[in-house]
Amino acid sequence: MKRLNRKKTIDIVKELDAFPKVPESYVVTSAFGGTVSLVVFILIALLAISEYLVYQDSWMKYEYEVDADFTSKLKIKIDITVAMKCERVGADVLDIAGTVIASKELKYDPVSFEPSPQRQMWYQILQQIQNRLREERSLQDVLFKSALNGYFSDPVPGNDSESESQNACRIHGQIYVSKVAGNFHITLGKAIETIRGHAHFASLIKNEAVYNFSHRIDYLSFGNDVPGNINPLDGTEKITLEQKMLFQYFITVVPTKLHTSDVSVDMHQFSVTERERVVNHEKGSHGVSGIFVKYKLSPLMVRVSEEHMPLSVFLVRLCGIIGGIFSTSDLLHRLIGYFVDIICCRFKLGANQSIEVLPD
């Protein structure tokens, strides 16, 4: 009884089969058809592998919204080497509200301005990466994906020069500022507070020959540290022979929330515009010689998230590739076979018409 019921079920399923069936006696195999089938299978395999690689890959999605966080502090991490002795320069931050962040939070270490060969090689690699970042923005997505993995990190921390000549000053450390516009500056003399405001005590330094604001920026970042991330000014080197030189960096800081498959972190990106000029009051070029990093915060926040292709989309695209190739190849095979038959028929007709009938 069970066998009869199972047989009836199979018969019902067979009746539901809507796909056309061609009797085997009508099917003719040929070398051309076999070649087309082989090409089709190879093409399907290549496109399927290509589609799988796309499915395995990811891309970065950028979204923008208003930054509503104005109460928290912003960390600025600094590591700059200036080609002057430490007792002759001073560094601090002055924001738009008049708040002065004392330079006590920064460390001054006497070093040699000339880096070691190993560190010089690292600067060259870093500058090449910076040039590629300016030319090819998609490289930034690679850095986002590799965040916190330690890629592109400095293999030689600090200044490793073995030279005894300590003709420069390494200013490094981190300071916390309010989320308002301000400027971090390094200029001649130590910072002092006066009744009239903020100033640098440089009156004891009479010799203008010691003025040399050639500098190298090893690291300058805003916000949380993200190992593997390269900031726009990292590896910047400015060499000058002028005694009174003014270097200016105008920075726009953009809060960024980075979400990838491996990490979720709050960071700050920034763009920079550089200017430099010689201070000469006689020629109308006024100002104070030194290094000035003027920053402001963008009111917009960027959300960067890593996106993957859903499995359902991958399966639909894969089915579309296989079905489309089969349909297209079948159509081309029929058209080519139709034209081949026409050409063969015309050739036969032409051959028959060329036969001459001889008289008896």
- Poorly predicted runs are none
Q: Classify the beta-strand content into a percent band.
A: 25-35%
Mean pLDDT: 78
Order of helices and strands: HHEEEEEHHEEEEEEEEEEH
- Say how many strands there are: 15
Largest sheet: 8 strands, mixed
Categorize the overall geometry.
Answer: elongated
Kindly report how far apart the N and C termini lie: 82 Å
How much helicity do the residues have? 25-40%
Structural class: alpha+beta
Radius of gyration: 36 Å
Query: What is the overall number of helices?
Result: 5
Short précis:
With 360 residues, the protein is an alpha+beta fold. It is built from five helices and 15 strands. The model has no long low-confidence stretch (mean pLDDT 78).
Explain what the structure shows.
The chain is an alpha+beta fold. It is 31% helix and 33% strand. It has five helices and 15 strands. It has helices spanning 2-15, 31-56, 117-135, 138-145, 311-353, and strands at residues 58-66, 74-82, 89-95, 100-101, 106-111, 168-177, 182-188, 190-194, 197-201, 215-222, 236-238, 245-259, 264-278, 290-297, 300-308. Strands 1, 3, 4, 7, 12, 13, 14 and 15 form an eight-stranded mixed beta sheet that branches. A hairpin with a 4-residue loop joins strand 12 (245-259) and strand 13.
